[in-house]
């Protein structure tokens, strides 16, 4: 498994995962439940991971999503 994206936003992570799924790329979200902690300064970042074989395609999908939404990586 390869870590391909880190964020503190659960909404952003889920939207990225939807984009990946649309392209047939399965992903996992690490630290998902740390975002529910009220003390966000101590919460761990959310990490999207994909299989090693999907890494290059997943990075292209994420870059396209970020560009389309005027977000920075």
Description of the molecule:
It is a single chain. This protein is α+β, with helices and mostly antiparallel strands and 73 residues long. The chain has a single domain, classed as Alpha-Beta Plaits (2-Layer Sandwich), CATH 3.30.70. Helices cover 37% and strands 21% of the residues. The chain has two helices and three strands. It has helices at 10-22, 55-68; strands at 2-7, 27-30, 46-50. Strands 1-3-2 form a three-stranded antiparallel sheet, with helices on one face. The model has no long low-confidence stretch (mean pLDDT 88).
CATH topology: Alpha-Beta Plaits
Shape: globular
Report mean pLDDT, rounded to a whole number: 88
Count of separate DSSP helical elements: 2
Task: List low-pLDDT spans.
Answer: none
Strand order of the largest sheet: 1-3-2
Give the tally of structural domains: 1
CATH architecture descriptor: 2-Layer Sandwich
Task: Report Rg.
Answer: 12 Å
Share of helix, binned: 25-40%
> Strand portion, in percent?
15-25%
Q: Please give the CATH class.
A: Alpha Beta
Main sheet?
Answer: 3 strands, antiparallel
Order of helices and strands: EHEEH
Structural class per helix/strand content? alpha+beta
Summarize the structure.
It contains two helices and three strands, in the order E-H-E-E-H. By secondary structure, it is of the alpha+beta class.
Write the layout of secondary structure elements.
Blueprint: E1 2-7, H1 10-22, E2 27-30, E3 46-50, H2 55-68
């Amino acid at each position: 498994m390869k870590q391909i994206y880190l964020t503190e936003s659960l909404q952003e992570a889920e939207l990225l995962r939807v984009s990946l799924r649309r392209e047939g790329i399965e992903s996992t979200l690490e630290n998902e439940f740390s975002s529910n902690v009220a003390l966000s300064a101590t919460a761990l970042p959310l990490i999207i991971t994909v299989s090693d074989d999907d890494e290059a395609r997943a990075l292209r999908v994420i870059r396209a999503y970020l560009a389309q939404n005027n977000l920075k990586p």
